[in-house]
């Protein structure tokens, strides 16, 4: 009976239980006795034997044992067994031994090869898998890392082992490569021949040459021609010096002298009909062998860049330079030869020539002989330089004097603040419309657009709210500016967002304002809800930012029938609150108005008898009577950047911001902090008009040069280079608490500037009016109290004494104050 093969055992293994076998007994399963076959095996074997016999036919000479051996090996696979038996025991046909013979597989060969050295007899014990792998020339690494031993019966014939292996793999196609088709690796002893795969026409020509050369050499030797020998020797020497590695492959076996020459790059295009001059003349020239240069040739670009020192004699044309060795497509065509690409000046030459002429310099005569391309390129690179922008000439004006004698109108900036939707933008839109800053046509257009999206009541607000986001949401997001004039004053409106999410933007607007207009919705409940919201917060913020004058526009009076009672109620409540927030009652004005209808904004409506009880000024009159803030013109320049933008080709980088102190004029250099980068003022615009200078209190647009935009950020300070703002990381400030203040992390706001910091110390609580210390080192500062605290910043910021800051924590304003040092 055939041995129990590894396959058979594997069939019945419960892998979950027995993954690894520790000793050979375990390979035999229980219930298997004697011949090693189970009852099931025996039945299968009997049935399969009958089928194999039928398939082979009665005339086929094979014993039952041979059939069963085959079936055992092929897991009772009748087809395979039949094939095997036919191949194994079929009578050999002497006439066609090769065709009929089953091709030997790789495995067959390997196994046979191993068998050559093996004792051709009976092995006295089993052969383990290492031996099998070695026999198959596979090596152990291709077997299992822990190879399971393969057992063969005692007294197994080694010849049969190779046969079995051979037969087992005979049907694997990749193992059945006929021996005559097996590749042979022959170590290279000579340099490769020309052509991609060494079989080109040139190679054939070279071979011919070589043969001819050898014949000549033999002939010369016969004739004792010493001269030829010397030439041959010289050849060998020169070759060695040129390419020692390639041409002296072995000292022991010197090769005949062959002179290699650089292979010219063939044209990638089909050769034209014209006979090429470069066709080797085998008859007249020394026998040579075309050989591809194994070292990569430098590219044309690299050669051009690096060939500064041209050794060519002066006057030599480009065609005769080393570049000519790099064949270009169509170069051998007649048409191509007519074209001299260097005959006319290059585009670079033309540009340079034009530039010279433009600069008024006489153009140099064309250099003859022509310089090599590499030199020209190097020269051109040397000449490359960034055109410096023409220096901006300063008129060196005495700006303070200019301002004094300018007789220009007063200039004032006011910020419009208040709770969301109380009508700030509508009120400003109405004001601009009634003052004819906005024409009827524009307002009609806005009305139509607003109607189209169902927001007709926002048409006037859209005069200020110009972004699509603001218009679609019906909410102001960022500060919107606009200008208008009265008889006495030129105003800049800073319309702030009312929504609490945009308080940082409101702070930025407030930091630029001389005074504020607080808009309050007088309708039922709106005023009250505003008090809990941003009405109070905004009022406190602007006061903390240094605003002293406050005009309260009691708006939407049309919704309450111009109720005097309501107006008085609101006025009383607000006066109480504002005075506690340090506003002087003299600086507060209350104006009843309706932005939507325009009542009492720029004019009184004589037909509106409901407002007869009011005898005070209109809103515009109230604005006009406000006193401007003092202008520190004689102080060093300080401008807080509130916007950075690209103004276009002529003005690539521009900034906007209020001048807090000092003056500036065209041509001035300014220092940007904290980047410490300088810039030059190229042009100045004020309310869209070009001007030569600007002074403190104004919000000009400065067009800059000599600075990279990366050095300009919102909240940065533009200052005089000789009086720069210091960068500080820690400061003491006097604050008015909006909420309970404790040592904690805070966001520090100054204009558009926002930075992370921490209140590290509560130094003292102070008296509101006198500023005297009430309590040192308090544990907490309560809302409404004034205190001195120390703040540490995460990064250095341009802050100095007198600057107003706001401290916020998680979206709420906790305090605002003044930097002390
Ligand atoms: N009846 C009436 N409605 C007004 C008046 N003023 C404004 N409104 C309406 O109030 C709504 C809000 O007006 P806005 O001007 O957008 O309010 P706002 O304060 O600028 O809003 P934010 O800037 O987003 O805080 C709009 O529907 C206006 O039509 C007014 O005097 N009377």
From TrEMBL:
PROSITE patterns, A to Z: G_TR_1, G_TR_2
Boundaries of every Tr-type G domain copy: 409-631
GO cellular component: cytosol; Dom34-Hbs1 complex
Main localization category: cytoplasm
Catalytic activity field: GTP + H2O = GDP + phosphate + H(+)
Record's compositionally biased regions (Acidic residues): 15-38
Annotated stretches, region: Disordered: 1-43, 243-296, 344-375
Lineage: superkingdom: Eukaryota
Entry's Gene Ontology BP terms: cytoplasmic translational termination; regulation of translation
Subunit structure: Component of the Dom34-Hbs1 complex, also named Pelota-HBS1L complex, composed of dom34 and hbs1.
Protein name: Elongation factor 1 alpha-like protein
């Amino acid at each position: 009976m055939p041995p129990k093969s590894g396959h058979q055992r594997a069939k019945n293994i419960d892998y979950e239980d027995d993954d690894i076998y520790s000793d050979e007994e375990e390979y035999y399963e229980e219930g298997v006795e004697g011949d090693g076959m189970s009852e099931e095996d025996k039945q299968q074997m009997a049935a399969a034997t009958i089928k194999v016999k039928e398939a082979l036919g009665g005339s086929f000479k094979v014993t039952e044992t041979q059939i069963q051996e085959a079936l055992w090996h092929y897991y009772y696979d009748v087809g395979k067994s039949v094939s095997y038996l036919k191949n194994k025991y079929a009578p050999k046909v002497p006439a066609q031994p090769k065709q009929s013979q089953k091709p030997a597989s790789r495995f067959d060969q390997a196994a046979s090869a191993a068998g050559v050295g093996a004792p051709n007899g009976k092995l006295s014990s089993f052969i383990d898998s290492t031996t099998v792998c070695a026999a198959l020339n596979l090596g152990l690494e291709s077997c299992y890392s822990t190879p399971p031993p393969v057992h063969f019966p005692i007294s197994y014939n080694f010849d049969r082992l190779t046969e079995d292996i051979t037969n087992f793999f005979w049907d694997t196609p990749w193992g059945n490569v006929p021996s005559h088709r097996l590749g042979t690796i022959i170590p290279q002893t000579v340099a490769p021949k020309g052509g991609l795969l060494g079989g080109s026409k040139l190679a054939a020509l070279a071979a011919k040459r070589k043969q001819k050369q050898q014949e000549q050499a033999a002939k010369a030797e016969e004739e004792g021609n010493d001269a030829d020998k010397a030439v041959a020797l010289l050849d060998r020497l020169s070759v060695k010096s040129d390419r020692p590695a390639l041409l002296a492959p072995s000292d022991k076996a010197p090769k005949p002298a062959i002179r290699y020459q650089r292979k010219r790059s063939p044209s990638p295009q089909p050769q034209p009909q014209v006979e090429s001059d470069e066709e080797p003349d085998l008859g007249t020239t020394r026998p040579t062998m075309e050989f591809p240069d194994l070292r990569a040739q430098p590219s044309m670009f690299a050669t051009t860049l690096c060939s500064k020192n041209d050794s060519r004699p002066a006057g030599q044309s480009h065609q005769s330079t080393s570049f000519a060795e790099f064949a270009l497509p169509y170069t051998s065509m007649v048409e191509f030869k007519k074209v001299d690409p260097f005959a006319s000046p290059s585009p670079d030459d033309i540009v340079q020539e034009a530039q010279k002429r433009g600069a008024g310099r006489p153009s140099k005569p064309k250099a003859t002989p022509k310089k090599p391309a590499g030199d020209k390129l190097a020269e051109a690179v040397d000449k490359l330089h960034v055109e410096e922008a023409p220096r901006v000439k300063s008129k060196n004006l005495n700006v303070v004097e200019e301002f004094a004698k300018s007789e220009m109108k007063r200039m004032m900036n006011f910020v419009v603040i208040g709770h969301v939707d109380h009508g700030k933008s509508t009120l400003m839109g109405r004001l601009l419309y009634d003052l004819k800053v906005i024409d009827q046509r524009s307002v009609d257009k806005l009305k139509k657009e607003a109607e189209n999206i169902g927001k007709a009541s926002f048409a006037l607000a859209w005069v200020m709210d110009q972004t699509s986001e603001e218009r679609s949401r019906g909410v102001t997001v960022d500060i919107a500016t606009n200008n208008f004039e009265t008889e006495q004053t030129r105003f800049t409106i800073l319309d702030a967002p009312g929504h609490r999410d945009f308080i940082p933007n409101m702070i930025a607007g407030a930091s630029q304002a001389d005074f504020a207009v607080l808009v309050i919705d007088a309708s039922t409940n709106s005023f009250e809800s505003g008090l809990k919201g941003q009405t109070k917060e905004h009022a406190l913020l602007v006061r903390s930012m240094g605003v002293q004058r406050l005009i309260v526009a009691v708006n939407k009076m049309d919704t309450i029938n111009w109720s005097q009672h309501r107006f008085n109620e609101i006025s009383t409540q607000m006066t109480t609150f504002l005075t506690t927030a340090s506003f002087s009652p003299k600086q507060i004005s209350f104006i009843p108005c309706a932005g939507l209808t325009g009542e009492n904004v720029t004019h009184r409506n004589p037909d509106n008898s409901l407002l007869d009880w009011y005898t005070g000024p209109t809103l515009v009159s109230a604005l006009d009577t406000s006193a401007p803030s003092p202008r520190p013109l004689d102080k060093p320049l300080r401008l807080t950047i509130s916007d950075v933008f690209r103004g276009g080709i002529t003005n690539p980088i521009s900034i906007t911001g209020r001048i807090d102190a000092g003056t500036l004029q065209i041509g001035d250099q300014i220092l940007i902090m904290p980047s410490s980068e300088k810039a030059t003022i190229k042009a100045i615009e004020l309310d869209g008009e070009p001007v030569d200078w600007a002074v403190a209190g104004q919000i000009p647009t400065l067009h800059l040069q000599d600075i990279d935009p990366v050095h300009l950020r919102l909240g940065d300070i533009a200052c005089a280079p000789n009086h720069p703002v210091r960068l500080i990381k820690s400061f003491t400030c006097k604050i008015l608490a909006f909420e309970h203040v404790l040592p904690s992390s805070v966001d520090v706001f100054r204009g558009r500037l926002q930075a992370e910091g921490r209140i590290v110390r509560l130094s003292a609580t102070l008296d509101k009016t006198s500023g005297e210390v009430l309590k040192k080192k308090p544990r907490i500062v309560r809302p409404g109290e004034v205190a001195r605290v120390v703040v540490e910043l995460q990064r250095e910021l341009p802050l100095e004494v007198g600057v107003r800051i706001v401290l916020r924590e998680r979206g709420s304003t906790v305090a605002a104050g003044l930097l002390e040092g």
